[in-house]
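User:
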Amino acid sequence: GLGVKHAKQLLPQLLDAATTTGTPVCWVCNPMDANTRRAAANGRKTRHLDDITAEIQAFFAACRHTGTIPAGLHLETCPDDITECIGGWQPLDENDLTRNYQTHCGPRLNDVQTIGCITVALQELAQQPDSACRRAK
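Assistant: Predicted structure:
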């Protein structure tokens, strides 16, 4: 992942550059790692859902712009009601991180946050001109 700050600017250029090499490339979006930050309230590592979903949207927009077929989405998730990432439909904030923060590695999305990210990805996928969703209809 490039992180939301760089995805909109750099990703279209990377996709364009890859198409000129003639080498097949499988493009997968990883909006997790480059969007990790420290919470000001308690210093815990966290991720903000707005950053994650914005990078997902930037990935699909870059694919549309360049005619690239998006091949996948990498999310770090947990099926439990954890509080390691902030924002989203619930809406969790930095003070909620102490409620059920279980990770010893990278902050994961809980079940509701994961569904939110997948919903954004499906909305974007439906807009892709060559998406599997459109062919399946």
